[in-house]
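Progress report, Aim 2. The chain analyzed during this reporting quarter is listed below.
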Amino acid sequence: MPNKQLFIGITGGIGSGKTTVCRVFEVLGAKTYYADDRAKMLMHSDEKLVSQIKELFGEEAYVDGKLDRKYIAEKVFKDDALLEKLNGLVHPAVGMDVEQWRNENPDADLLLKEAALLFETGSYKALDKNILVTAPEEVRIERVVSRDKHRNRSDVKAIIDKQMSDEEKRPLADYVVNNDGSESIIKQVMKIYQELVVT
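Predicted structure tokens for the chain:
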């Protein structure tokens, strides 16, 4: 086992299967920080962040104390500058939250940070290694449409088009997990785990 705690990034576009890869690592004893889920939680519970979002989008950004995600999504998808401003509020809050989470898990040998925008935000640079999860676009669209009932094909395509392509991400990744069904996810993860933790 390593004498220093490893902090590994798991990233990939929407529908690529990041969570599946994390679940396999968790069976092997890793602990995962799900950045997108924590960001949603912080947008409800972090008073400073809530007030910043209201300042940016107006009071109507929240309905009955809950973030109106549909309203926000409609605003930012039409306006890249507004999306950048929102990310500029959320990412620092997540950065502070992840550090607190790390401090709460001092004994774990392997910590994972699962985030869709690891390379886009530059936060991958703070991690020991980064794993990219890939899958063909059509497979990803099918997965998301069947998983997220509030999204249709064109919604998912719009999200994919806003994200960096796998080709752009590959040179930044230390490992790539192929999740198109042709190779066992478990075998691929086990190989990476052996390299990271056992050797």
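The mean pLDDT is 92. Residues 1-30+111-199 form a domain with the Rossmann fold fold (CATH 3.40.50.300). These observations will guide the mutagenesis work planned for the next reporting period.
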